[in-house]
Design goal:
Order of helices and strands: EEEHEHEH
CATH architecture: 2-Layer Sandwich
Number of strands: 5
Strand content: 25-35%
Distance between the termini: 29 Å
Helix content: 25-40%
Shape: globular
CATH superfamily: STAS domain
CATH class: Alpha Beta
Radius of gyration: 13 Å
Structural class: alpha/beta
Number of helices: 3
Length: 115
């Protein structure tokens, strides 16, 4: 069973109807899960997740399999996760066609962890 980590008590208020970002602990690993429509409306939610990821100094897995829309803001989020200050970055990316397309259109030929 996945455990959700929340850096602040009121993080649930940042949820938007179109998409969501969750930080979970699965099998002792940090997992950032993107779902639904990932756009600028999720910036505050992502910023809270990123603070926790950076503070943990642990590798992170990214799960985007449930993404139905992914814009340039989503690409920015992935890039910020890949090189967190002082942390090891992303070890695995589970993608979706939407994410693959956005990365390709943004000029990111391959996401660094997807080699």
């Amino acid at each position: 069973m996945a455990q959700t980590l929340t850096p602040v008590a009121d993080v649930r208020e940042l949820d938007t109807p179109g998409g969501d970002i969750h930080l979970e602990l699965r099998r002792g690993r940090l997992v950032v899960r993107f779902a639904g429509e990932i756009d600028t409306a999720l910036r505050a939610r992502f910023d809270q997740v990123l603070i926790t990821v950076r503070a943990a100094h642990e590798p992170v897995e990214v799960d985007c399999r449930d993404v139905t829309f992914f814009c340039a803001e989503g690409v920015r989020m992935l890039m910020l996760l890949q090189a967190p200050a002082g942390g090891p970055g992303v070890t695995e990316l589970r993608s979706s066609p939407w994410v693959d397309r956005a990365l390709r259109l943004s000029g990111v030929e391959r996401y660094p962890s997807a080699l």
